Amino acid sequence: MDVTTILLLLLAGALITYFSGDKLAPKVALVFSLGTLAVTLNLLAVFTQGGNVSFMSNWIDVPKVALAFKADGLSLAMVLLTTALTPLIIFSSFGNKFNNSKNFYALVLFMAFAMTGTFLAADGLLYYIFWELALIPIYFIALIWGNGDAEERKKAVVKFFIYTLAGSLFMLIGFAYLYTKANSFLLEDLYKLELSATEQFYIFFAFFLAYAIKIPIIPFHTWQAKVYQKAPTVGTMLLSGIMLKMGLYSIIRWQLPIAPQAAKTYMPVLIGLSIAGVIYGSIVALRQKDLKKLLAYSSLSHVGLIAAGCYTLTLDGLSGAVLQMIAHGFVIVGLFFAAEIIYRRYETRTISEMGGIRAQTPRFTSMFMILVLASVALPGTFNFVGEFTVLYSLAQINIWFVILGGTTIILGGYYMLKMFQNTMLGETNTKVFADVTTNEAITLIVIIGFLLFFGLYPKPIVELVTPSLNEILSNINR
């Protein structure tokens, strides 16, 4: 058994979900997503015992394109994030009703298939195909099942699609040029290239445009808040929890090792841009009146810090970035789900129209509070491990980077606790707030349990990704 089993299972799940009919589609999608998680855990066990779960086969002769899937600790960590969050996201949606649900859940599984392929692909053209495939399902999920005015939603989603596609085309041009130099798209062959400083500059920034838009890094972030707000909560979870990690992962896997000299030369600029996103996202979040937009800008701030960790080119920075990717994926999915729970009761996302929830449901309030504290990196939560490691790596580069980057903790604590106070406390909204259902409670408990367990014991993930990161750093410093 190899990693292609995961891809085939997700693809088969998408097809069977589509043909299962609207009534059975949610349950069929959940079964296949759980099956994929089980297969991922099995493959992870084989990998940790020294087994080879990668896959390699020729696909196209001219140009030379291979069905090459590399399963190392880094890629398996990101696949595990995808296959763990997908069933949680599907299960969390059981409290919503979707028209043509067979189409909806089939698209969710197909998107998981494309994102998983992106994390595993070890051939440049194959990677690009999966990268673009992931854009198609989220486009339709946000456009058809999104919130608010249809015309505004269409504008936001089309802008997102065009921005992302345009950035990706620069990356495709970069791969085309690399093929002329290596006569191959294989990752290991691209790593061996000796590119001049000028060539590295153009390749580096061709990739940067694609990744900066996807993550996003300012000033390429203008699509993000509107799409997060207008997409259905499931779509927002997929975007924030998994899809943006494609860009962060790709920085480590593709951009830095292929153009290491450019990365070293422009490190201060790249870290500066990333930290600017931390500060900008936090300040704008302070002014938000819509709960989903506040969480969107909070996410922008946190991923800016992750990107800064990637560009430190140190083991601590890369390790902290990967840990924070995984932690952020779980906590942001939990926060958006909590916002959806409130919307199901109050039918509003305006913070000023909430309040009074704590007195009616202490259980939900407690779980929401834990997610808020995890988001601001309280010691004992998984987010603290990642953020502290990234900040430590920034301190090794320049003390001002860590001072400015640390504002995500100070400002994040302020606006998140202020949001909690306005949404959960007081007596603003007098409508009855029903306690969380069993499905809702299970989803939140699983997310919280993950964040607390790995907050206290991150060793398994650290040991999983460290060998891969050391290998990547050896290519950067060759």
Number of helices: 21
Assembly state: single chain
How much helix, percentage-wise, in residues? over 70%
- Please state roughly what percent of the residues sit in beta strands, choosing from under 5%, 5-15%, 15-25%, 25-35%, 35-45% or over 45%: under 5%
* Mean of all residue-level pLDDT scores: 93
Between the first and last Cα atoms, what is the distance in angstroms? 34 Å
* DSSP summary, beta strand count: 2
The run of helices and strands is HHEEHHHHHHHHHHHHHHHHHHH
Rg on CA atoms, Å: 21 Å
| Strand order in the sheet with the most strands | 1-2
- How would a textbook summarize the main sheet? 2 strands, antiparallel
Stretches where pLDDT falls below 50 for ≥5 residues? none
Envelope shape: globular
SSE blueprint:
Layout lengths: L3 H16 L5 H24 L6 E6 L4 E5 L3 H20 L8 H20 L3 H10 L1 H11 L4 H33 L4 H5 L5 H18 L9 H7 L2 H26 L1 H6 L1 H20 L4 H20 L4 H32 L15 H14 L6 H16 L1 H7 L1 H18 L13 H19 L2 H18 L2
Antiparallel strand pairs: 1-2
Structure description:
The chain is mostly helical. Helices cover 75% and strands 2% of the residues. Strands 1-2 form a two-stranded antiparallel sheet. A hairpin with a 4-residue loop joins strand 1 (55-60) and strand 2. Helix 7 (150-182) packs across helix 10, helix 15 (315-346) crosses helix 17 (382-397) and helix 17 packs antiparallel against helix 18. The radius of gyration is 21 Å and the shape is globular. The protein starts with a helix and ends with a helix. The model has no long low-confidence stretch (mean pLDDT 93).
